[in-house]
Amino acid sequence: MPATPPRPDVPSPAAGTACDTDVLIVGAGPTGLTLAAALQARGVRCLLIDRLAEGANTSRAAVVHARTLEVLEPLGVSAALVARGLQAQRFSVRDRDRVLMPIGFAQLPSRYPFTLMISQAETERALLDRLLALGGTVMRPRTLIGLTQSDEHALATLDDGTCIAARYVVGADGMHSAVRGFAGIPFDGDRYDEAFVLADVQLDGGVPHDEVVLYFSPAGMAVVAPLPDGRHRVVATVDEAPEQPDAAFIQALLDARGPQRAPARVRALLWSSRFRVHHRIAERYRAGRLLLAGDAAHVHSPAGGQGMNTGMLDAMRLATALGRALEGDDAALDAYGAERRPIAQQVIALAHRLTRLATVPPARRLLRNALLSLLALCPPFRRRLAWQLSGLAYR
Q1: Which of 171, 210, 213, 389 could bridge to 296 as Cys pair (CB 3.0-4.6 Å)?
Q2: Are residues 317 and 253 in the same domain?
Q3: Do residues 225 and 342 both lie within one domain?
Q4: What is the mean pLDDT of the chain?
Q5: Which residue has the higher pLDDT, 153 or 278?
Q6: Where are the beta strands (DSSP E) in the chain?
Q7: In this structure, is residue 232 part of a structural domain?
Q8: What HEC string does 100-136 produce?
Q9: pLDDT reported for residue 59
Q10: How many CB atoms lie within 10 A of CB 256?
Q11: What is the secondary structure of 166-210 as a DSSP string?
């Protein structure tokens, strides 16, 4: 097994060094927390580190899909998430007031025939509570500054001078993954030209309170989704945006893209941000004893709300693979990447298609609307899209 070239300022693992842990997980977002809890539940020694002093109390992701809730059941967190979230029964694509594609979830063959709307901060809190109950913890703030590997183990060096020897290291540390960088794994793809605006608001007007709506507009897409406590999440593509969009900026987006018969009015802005989105995927999910999951392995448009879910499903599958590898079945780790990477490719393709459909030039708008309205008359097409959005297509 090839070793990652050591940096001159980072100690190299000495032969025969005893491992401090079986698995070191870098990044305590939803993916890392899920993986740590799943490993802890299996009795696997693991350490979870994160560069932030505390978990974020604002969030980008706001959707937990049916398949994710199914897979999380063994951890005992699905019921807690459902209790904290709002069950959206429908997803629709609209051009202003015109419904182009209605998608219902009630007929899904799942114990969770809905889309669960819940802040990522609440999702992380439920996962952290479960991890702590299982005897795990998060080491904060700790930043990975060096990583080498040998045939026996990997050695991680942290910014406080600590060296941790682990049998495996998992990068769950996001798009700018340090683990992926040390592993030398290419991250192929590109960046969308548009910026994305995200805001949590209180709304009045004609926006549904039990349905996620993707508004198509020549100016760009806008997603308006209900959250618990009467809030809504707004996500929109824009050419340029202020660092922290204000209520007037969000109102202008809704005026240009949202409902017209009963316009949505921003009563209060609770939180907002802007960000750039890439569509990229790691060339492989493993380099020796170093593995990737979540945004460290794949990133894409937020259209369809797939990102956090895909990462949490990565984590549950990787927990199984690591358990087998620690028992001597090293091939299980290659099987993890062989299974999960094609799924990520499909998710990226779906999110990209939705984003590009939302932003077709005005000259093609009527054709797009006619095509979607025609497809909406086809029950198998609607069922397939419901399966893709819910994640059940990847069972």
Answers
A1: 171
A2: no
A3: no
A4: 89
A5: 153
A6: 21-26, 46-49, 63-64, 86-88, 90-95, 98-104, 115-117, 138-139, 144-149, 154-158, 163-171, 187-204, 211-215, 222-226, 231-238, 265-282, 286-287, 290-292, 298-299
A7: yes
A8: EEEEECCCCCCCCCCEEECCHHHHHHHHHHHHHHCCC
A9: 59
A10: 15
A11: EEEEEE-S-TT-HHHHHHT--EEEEEEEEEEEEEEEEEESS--SS
CA distance linking residue 129 with residue 34, whole number of Å? 11
Number of domains in the chain: 2
The candidate with the shortest Cα–Cα distance to 30, out of 67, 66, 72, is 72
CATH code, domain with 364:
3.30.9.10
- Of 146, 153, 165, 171, which is closest to residue 288 (Cα–Cα)? 153
Q: Measuring CA to CA, how many Å separate 131 from each of 20, 47, 67, 352?
A: 19, 11, 21, 34
**114, part of any domain:** no
In a domain, 7, yes or no: no
| Tokens (6 digits) for 39 | 């490993």
**Would the pTM of this model clear 0.85, i.e. be above it?**
yes
Which residues, in sequence order, are CB contacts of 198 under 8 Å at separation 6+? Answer: 60, 233, 234, 235, 272, 273, 274, 275
Q: Is the pLDDT of residue 367 over 50?
A: yes
Axis crossing angle, helix 120-133 with helix 30-41, rounded to the nearest 10: 20
| Amino acid letter for position 111 | R
Task: Give residue 209's domain range.
Answer: 192-278+358-394
Helix (H) or strand (E) holding 362: helix 362-376
Contact criterion met (CB below 8 Å) for 196 and 274: yes
From residue 235, alpha-carbon distances to 253, 257, 258 in Å are 10, 12, 12
Token representation of residue 317: 């599958």
Residues 316, 210, single domain; the answer is no
**pLDDT, tens digit, for every residue of 112-155?**
999 999 999 999 999 999 999 999 999 999 999 999 999 999 99
Residue 6 has pLDDT above 60, yes or no: no
Is 246 found in the same domain as 273?
Answer: yes
Contact partners, residue 310, CB within 8 Å, separation at least 6 = 294, 298, 343, 344, 347
Between CA 123 and CA 130, with CA 129 as vertex, the angle to 5 degrees is 95
